[in-house]
Amino acid sequence: MLTDIEIAQKAEMKPIGEVAEKLGITEDELEYYGKYKAKISNTVLKRLEDKPDGKLILVTAINPTPAGEGKTTISVGLGQAMEKIGKKAIIALREPSLGPVMGVKGGAAGGGYSQVVPMDDINLHFTGDFHAITAANNLLSAAIDNHIHQGNALGIDQRRITFKRVLDCNDRALRDVVVGLGGKLNGIPREDGFMITVASEIMAILCLATDLMDLKERLGRIVIGYTYDNKPVTCAEIGVAGAMTVLLKDAAKPNLVQTLENTPCIIHGGPFANIAHGCNSILATKTALKLADYCITEAGFGADLGAEKFFDIKCRYGGLKPDAVVLVATIRALKYNGGVKKEDLKTPDVEALKNGMCNLEKHIENIKKFGLPLIVTLNSFDTDSEEENKAVFETCAKHGVKCVLSTVFANGGEGGKDLATNLCELIENEKSDFKFMYDVNETIPAKIEKIAKEIYGADGVQFTADALKTLKSLEEMGMDRLPVCMAKTQYSLSDDPAKLGRPQGFTVTVRELRLSAGAGFVVALTGNILVMPGLPKVPAANRIDIDANGNITGLF
After folding, report:
1. In Å, what is the CA distance from 302 to each residue of 117, 366, 452, 533?
2. In principle, which of 71, 132, 342, 548 could form an S-S bond with 251, CB 3.0–4.6 Å?
3. Residue 261: CB partners within 8 Å, gap ≥ 6?
4. What are the residues facing 119 on neighbouring strands?
């Protein structure tokens, strides 16, 4: 059996200009990054502003497990399948972070015969967007320390600087550091730390900005810390928002690539969904909606994280209204939620499957709360039994939802035609009645409690003393009427990764609140969420290699 990268390396890609031409993008609206990648000029949106939007489809999933769910694989396969049934479709995805690529997960551009290519480029440096975000972030960090070193005219309390440096790499040793050591010429010593680039507020800002000037304005609103008399200090006051925007001017443009079957795909931005809002950029999605009749996008991790943030943050700021949701599940993941160990997941076990079905049922209920048409798809494995498939079909039918098998990993677009056909019928016959989970003008505790109770199934929420202190400060600053971005484990509906299935009788603990004024939300950290992950005992980087001819191996 071929590996994902071997399949990708055998792909017959079309020059990206041909892919763009099929979408109606002109030569002048492309900026080439080699033969198979290009940036799309933001003039495309302006040219097509009077054109009606296509249908917006969100692909989400049950809570992730070590068995894998294949959300991106389904997204890519569905886009390919749409074209096979005669629909003009485009896929809109996030860019992979080097953290997971070199850490636990490996590549992140789909799998099998449902991949986005050139897969190796996409998984590595791609068009340099993440490097630009890292540079812009660290320019601001350098400017903050320089301001203090040069006399600190703003009166910044160096003990209360909240803005961190970033690196697109898992490096636990950098979580907490001390900068400014070595004497007078090296600045003022203070505690600092690094986050992974995808956790940067600048990543979130890039993905929520509607144009270049909105990007610059949002960068200026970043609160970097506080003065000795407790007043917030912004990036605009530091004076580098313009320079940061210059560094990000190309990164702000969506990237165009293609699938193995030459279906167009826009990949842009990549905030994590457990510590950020987990969606690709508003600009990418809006561009895709103008270029095709169907835009297939995804949100990170399970529906309790990525989908909720897609609806309550991205759709709110982007003025987007989804038309339908595809909820991805696997027999293996459901059995894992039912208590089966990872090494035994290939063995048929209908009873364990039924025990784990509660996780799927909760996600079905949650999506219905947003007023959206829904279809479930089983990402099929050859170890799944007919009896197990039937049990899932029956459970979905009980909730008034259709479930369709997908074999896109093995068969590409051909294996997703049934899903594509049923999805189009669903959109035609059932209209979206999309609504947010909460009113943005509710208090922060009320918004968090609504998410915790309605989406997670919690009995309630408790706040630590530190979180309550920050809450009072946010209220005094008038920053409490922003959407909430819940930073929570992806592995459970609760804030405890060990609680699988559908946990009952638990309370969510908010240990810290962080203001992302530029992005326009308040981050609520729960459980043991880290903004700088560490590498595992055997990182994925250990198996990645290259030969004398430039052929890469081990990249997923």
Report:
1. 25, 11, 15, 19
2. 132
3. 80, 83, 412, 413
4. none
H, E, C per residue of 416-465: HHHHHHHHHHHHHHCCCCCCCCCCCCCCHHHHHHHHHHHHHCCCEEEECH
CB proximity list for 458: less than 8 A, separation 6 or greater: 452, 494, 506, 507, 508
**194/436 Cα distance (integer angstroms):** 33
**Greatest CA span in the chain, whole angstroms?**
72
Strand partners, 20: none
Of 283, 282, 248, the residue nearest 135 (C-alpha): 248
Instruction: Work out the number of other CB atoms within 10 angstroms of the CB of residue 534.
Output: 15
Q: How far apart are CA 344 and CA 353, in angstroms?
A: 12
What type of residue is 308? E
Q: What's the 3-state SS for 107-152?
A: CCCEECCEEEECHHHHHCCCCCHHHHHHHHHHHHHHHHHHHHHCCC
**Of 420, 15, 416, 83, residue with least CA distance to 263:** 83
For residues 223 and 103, give the distance between their C-alpha atoms in angstroms, rounded to a whole number.
Answer: 31
Question: Could you list the pLDDT tens digit for every one of the 556 residues in the chain?
Answer: 788 888 989 999 999 999 999 999 999 999 999 999 999 999 999 999 999 999 999 999 999 998 778 999 999 999 999 999 999 999 999 999 999 899 986 567 899 999 999 999 999 999 999 999 999 999 999 999 999 999 999 999 999 999 999 999 999 999 999 999 999 999 999 999 999 999 999 999 999 999 999 999 999 999 999 999 999 999 999 999 999 999 999 999 999 999 999 999 999 999 988 888 999 999 999 999 999 999 999 998 999 999 999 999 999 999 999 999 999 999 999 999 999 999 999 999 999 999 999 999 999 999 999 999 999 999 999 999 999 999 999 999 999 999 999 999 999 999 999 999 999 999 999 999 999 999 999 999 999 999 999 999 999 999 999 999 999 999 999 999 999 999 999 999 999 999 999 999 999 999 999 999 999 999 999 988 889 999 999 999 999 999 999 999 888 8
User: Which residue carries 């909460």 as its tokens?
Assistant: 438
Distance, CA of 418 to CA of 78 (rounded, Å): 10
Residue corresponding to tokens 């364990």: 352
Nearest-angstrom CA–CA distance, 420 and 423: 5
Q: How many Å apart are CA 222 and CA 216, to the nearest integer?
A: 10
Amino acid 234 reads T
Query: Taking a C-beta distance cutoff of 8 angstroms, is the pair 18, 132 a contact?
Result: no
Q: What is the pTM of this model?
A: 0.95
Rg of the Cα atoms in the chain: 23
Closest C-alpha among 221, 196, 34, 43 to residue 130? 196
Helix (H) or strand (E) segment spanning residue 353: helix 350-369
C-beta separation of 556 from 111 below 8 A: yes
Contact present, 209 and 245 (Cβ < 8 Å):
no
